[in-house]
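Thread: "does anyone have the structure for this chain?"

Original post by V.I.:
We have the sequence but no experimental structure in hand. Need at least a predicted one for the grant figures.
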Amino acid sequence: MSALSSSAPLGARFMTGLLQDGITSQAELRPHAPAVVVGEACLTYGDLEEQSNRLARLLHAAGVKRGDRVCLLLPKSPAAIVAIVGVLKADAVYVPLDLASPATRVAKMIASCEDRWILAGGSAGPVLEELFADRAFAAAHSVGWLSGEPPGAAGVRPQFSLSDLQAYGVAPPDRQNGPDAAAHILFTSGSTGVPKGVVITHDNVLAFLRWAGAYFGTGPSDRVSWHPPMHFDLSTFDVFGTLHAGAALYPVPGELSLLPHRLAAFIRECALTQWFSVPRC
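Reply from O.Q.:
Generated one for you, tokens below.
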């Protein structure tokens, strides 16, 4: 793991309470600052705060309750960040899943965490079609589609899409969770053949962020890579370490990892100041 450079940390004083609190604080301080940048598209901290509040209210209206698991079948994107923060604000638990995994494996993870909600987008259509071909699965699960037009996958009828967020208010919803509540579940690689979910609390992540924020000194002027996939544990630091510091998060397209010259060009074009990834020999 390495850092290219850093500036004075801003977010350390917000690393208490719940994970979403640090993001809300940044939105109050610097609503027009970039939070997530993909090409020419930019999700500001103000946008993230409003959209995640709307999503949390929509989830409550749809029946999501405190402690419910909400699985994410989303690519790294602004919509994925809105989903993560929105689920937390709904007092629920987000479960990032690998879009590239076979549907049979995804089904095992969904069953293991007793999830009944899936937030999806991007290339998730084919996986959803396989999952919803099972009538029992289809009867027990609902989908919210968070990117572009809903998929034309057979048997998949999203209960809501991104455009439906506009019907909900932008004020933060009431909350019941405390720091010891579960924030997300990460699944192991499943060396025994059965994926195992690890429950991680708000306090777990915040304790790590307090150390990492001080060590790497991430600040509001930084531009930070989001290199690992969302279901990989290092992604937790990329997302929350960046957003708690008020820095800008740059999702790295997965295909660039196989093309070093394009990866180097991406770093230059985005003027990244911090990069975190697993070294390869």
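V.I.: this helps a lot. The chain has a mean pLDDT of 90.
O.Q.: and The domain at 11-270 is CATH 3.40.50.12780 (Rossmann fold).
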